Every structure is written in structure tokens, then in C-alpha cells.
Amino acid sequence: MDFITLVLFVIGLALLIFGADLLVRGAARLAAAFGIPPLVIGLTVVAFGTSSPELAVSVQSAWAGQPDLAVGNVLGSNVFNVLLILGLSAVITPLAVSRQLVRLDVPIMIACSALLLLLARDRLISRLDGVIFASGLIVYVVFLFLQAGKEKNDKEGDFEEEFGRADSGAKAVMTNLFFVAAGLGMLVLGSHWLVEGAVMLARAMGVNELVIGLT
Length: 215
Prior knowledge:
This protein is an all-alpha fold. The chain has helices at residues 3-33, 38-49, 52-63, 67-92, 99-119, 127-150, 156-163, 170-205, 209-214.
């Protein structure tokens, strides 16, 4: 196996991780500086920002003509999130599960998986399928906003603990803009290097790109 290929893959992965963190922190602080409520930031900026590595890799993979890697990245990420991250967290300490999670969130996740299974039966995720997925996401986000509007919990303290106090000064705004730009740049470059490295690793190991994406 080419050492340069492995280094390219590892550096790309590291850039994705640090880039996503910079993007989320910079964008969240900018949003807070412009008076956007912490709850809205959590439902939009943070939620989408934490998924930005998977988004960057899948888009880059599709653009590079590697659909197996694009699909495998999404499926593998979800499988590992549930089985590894959630499982390991529960081993460390038992996790309390809310009623909404059992009655609403988990069924929605299962429904999304069932929709993917249904639309992929023809072995093609078409542009129309993509529109269906995107429309479903919009409906889900709107639903989250409506649900959040009914809750009385104060999220200000949680936001400041995670990202610090909002600062609308010119220096702070410029710093956060730099974080956003740097985060986006690292995501683009990292996804490019990771996809290139993953494809070369798959070829060197004699396995399908789907296997690399899943793992």
C-alpha cells in the first residue's frame, strides 16, 4: 500500500474534523452576534454543521464519479453513530431516553431508512429521489421549529457554555468570519483528499469503494 495514499487519507480526515468544528463555532457565534436565538442556531447551524463532513465527502464522491463511496459514507456514518457512538456512550454511563425520542424521533429515522430502501430498489438514486429526500428534510426542520416553539426551556446558558458569550464587535465578527471561511476551505480540501485517498486505498486492497465508504 502506498504510504502517500495513507497519509493523504488521514490528512483529509483530519481536515474534515477540524474544518467542521471551525465552521460550526464560527457560524454559531456569528448568528448569535446578529441576534438569532440559541434554539434556532441549534436547530440549523449546529445541526447542519455537524453533518458537514459527511455532506462534503458524499458531494465530492458523487462529483468524482464514485457513487458507491458517496452512498457508503452516508450509510456507514449512520450505522457507526448508532452502534458504536451510542453503544459506547451507554457502556460508559446509562442514557436516559425521552418519550419524544421513542415515540417520534426514532420512528422518523426508521421511516427515512425505509424510504431509502424503497427508492433504491431500482438500484438508482435519481435526481427526483434527491428532491424527495430534500423535501422531507425541509418538512422535518419546519416541524422541529414548531415543536421548539412550544417548549419553554432556556437555551441561552447552554449556548454560552458551548460557544461562549455572543460578541457583535467588529474584531469578533471578523474572527468568526475567518473561522467560517477556514472551516469551509478545510472541508472542501479535506473531502477531496479523503476521497482520492479512499479510492486509491480501495484499489490497492482490491475492494469496492462501497466497503471503504461504509467503514
